Structures are given as structure tokens and as C-alpha cells.
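User: Can you recover a sequence for this backbone? Please restate the input before giving your answer.

Assistant: Of course. Working from this structure:
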């Protein structure tokens, strides 16, 4: 009787269960970077496909929001802006908040929206949430450029605004990274729960809109209660 020895098969990829919650396998994101690039490109093209103005909406959306905020909250409500020109003050808050809100809202339903894709082919599950953050970062760059243009206008053509360089400006990339990671983390937590509780997706979308009014986006720190202003002034008091 002839015995045939079985050859041990060698696999390029072995899918196993994770041994720890912190085992995110971030190395796989780099290995699948081509897929990440394609997803970012797909989101960018699909979002503005068959639109007349196309990427011009990147400018129009924050511009129209800024004009409405200036009219309603500055002119009608009379809220202060800490001596900063109202268009510049509201534009800073709008650009930052919109990036965080987009990352959170779109990530919060990523597992539910792509359930059919997950069951057909293997790829790192973090690819889809990361592609959302990266595509929103591309959109974030356009209104950010518009914000810089507004700031330069007030610096060189208006005498009522004086810009002073602060060392904390060097931490701006870190601030953007924290916004992205916070929106990504919160969105993935919600996304894991929306697979069973679909109502959470509506709650998050509505809650993000409400929460904006609880943050210094439409009002200045001068409008905060006295106790909060006291702690804020102590935290930024320079050392002698």
C-alpha cells in the first residue's frame, strides 16, 4: 500500500480571531494602502458626481453658514466674539466643527452600510472608517484655505485686527489629528451598536447638531458664566 505524504500547505494570509481588543493590526492598513486610496477617491468623486458646481460647494457651504451665523448670532442676538471680526470668528468654529461632525456621522454607520461587502471579501475592517476620515480631510483642506484667505484679508486690509504669532499654532496638525481620532473613535463605538440598534444613527446625527450649540462655536468665552471664565483665565495665565 502506497502511502502518500501530505504536503503542508502554505498560506499567504491566515485570518484568526484577535487575542486582544487593542490588537488593531495597524500594519495591515499600510499593506492595503492602495485600497484606502481608491476608497478616498471613490468618496470624493461620488459625493460631487452629477453636480453643477462640483468642488465649489467646498467653499459655498461654509461661506453660506458663516453669513447666516453673522446675521443671526452677531447682528440679531448680539453675541460677542472676543474682539475678533465676526466672519473670521465663526469661520474658525465652522471649519473645525464640520470636520469633526462629518467624521462622527459617517463613521457611525459604516459597519451597517457595508455589511454586504464585509461578507464577500477580506480586507482590514479599519480601512472603511479610515477612508472616511481621509476623504473628509481632503474636504477640510478647501474651507481651511478659504479661512486663511479671510485671515490674510483682515491682517493686511483691516486695521481693526492684529494677528500675533503664538507658539501654540505649531500644534495645529496635532489638533486636527485629535479631531479626526476623536470622531473616528466615537463613530466606531456607535457603529458597533447601530448593527443592532438602528435608532442610534438618527440620535447621533441629531445629537451632533444640538451639541454644537453647547460648544464655543457660535459664542465666545466672554459669554460663558463667570465661574468658567475664572478657571479659563487661570489656566492661561502666563508664568512670571
Amino acid at each position: 500500500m502506497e502511502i502518500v505524504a501530505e504536503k503542508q500547505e502554505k498560506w499567504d494570509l491566515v485570518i484568526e480571531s484577535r487575542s486582544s481588543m487593542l490588537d488593531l493590526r495597524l500594519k495591515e492598513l499600510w499593506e492595503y494602502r492602495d485600497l484606502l486610496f481608491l476608497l478616498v477617491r471613490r468618496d470624493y468623486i461620488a459625493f460631487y458626481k452629477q453636480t453643477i458646481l462640483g468642488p465649489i460647494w467646498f467653499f459655498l457651504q461654509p461661506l453660506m453658514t458663516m453669513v447666516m451665523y453673522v446675521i443671526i448670532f452677531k447682528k440679531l442676538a448680539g453675541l460677542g466674539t472676543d474682539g475678533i471680526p465676526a466672519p473670521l470668528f465663526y469661520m474658525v468654529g465652522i471649519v473645525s466643527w464640520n470636520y469633526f461632525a462629518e467624521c462622527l456621522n459617517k463613521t457611525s454607520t459604516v459597519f451597517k452600510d457595508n455589511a454586504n461587502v464585509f461578507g464577500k471579501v477580506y480586507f482590514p475592517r479599519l480601512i472603511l472608517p479610515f477612508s472616511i476620515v481621509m476623504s473628509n480631510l481632503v474636504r477640510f483642506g478647501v474651507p481651511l484655505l478659504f479661512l486663511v484667505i479671510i485671515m490674510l484679508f483682515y491682517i493686511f486690509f483691516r486695521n481693526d485686527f492684529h494677528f500675533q504669532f503664538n507658539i501654540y499654532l505649531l500644534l495645529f496638525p496635532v489638533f486636527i489629528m485629535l479631531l479626526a481620532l476623536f470622531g473616528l473613535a466615537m463613530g466606531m463605538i456607535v457603529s458597533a451598536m447601530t448593527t443592532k440598534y438602528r435608532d442610534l444613527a438618527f440620535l447621533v446625527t441629531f445629537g451632533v447638531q444640538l451639541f454644537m450649540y453647547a460648544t464655543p462655536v457660535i459664542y465666545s468665552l466672554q459669554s460663558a458664566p463667570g465661574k468658567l471664565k475664572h478657571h479659563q483665565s487661570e489656566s492661561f495665565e502666563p508664568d512670571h
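That completes the design. The chain has one domain: 26-162+176-218.
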